[in-house]
Design brief:
Length: 196
Amino acid sequence: GAGKTMIAQNLGLAALAAGYTVRFSTLATALADLINQESLPAFERRVRRYTDPDVIVLDELGYLPCDSRAADMLYNIVSRRHEKRSTIITTNLAYKQWGAVFPGAACVVALVDRFNQHCHRLTIDADTLRSLARRLVTSSQEERLAMPGMRRQRADLVPTGALILRTLVDEIGLPGLTVSDWGLREGVILEALERV
């Protein structure tokens, strides 16, 4: 819905453009990858995929429940990266709800503490992109022009990802990152609107 994955991917793309190394994965895929390692040396080699990049994006925390072993693996990644590298996590859950994702895991409080210590939390209180697209399709030109970020030449389109990304980068104040147009091409947006 609201564009969490798109924002995280665009932050990753901006970091790549600035010369940083980036890894993107869903949390479920990353944890399954680590759990499948059959020995400690294999685990140590594999975990470097998630600890070495300058930026890691772990998408969709909370979509699937995890056992305490998976929680320990996530904690392992986060603690190795803590205060050294950037970690982006997308979720629909507040920190106090993370215990439900990792029931019985002793490390949940420590995991939340690591994130909370130096995090930039972005709370998206907005329509989903699908409902925004529906609203755009059914609104008049005048109503679209009144929407935040809408310019006259794009009043028939959904605001691009670049506009959202530029706002986020300005809000967070990430030094050294410049934002190019990582947004969706207008034709793709129009095709999506036609399907709504």
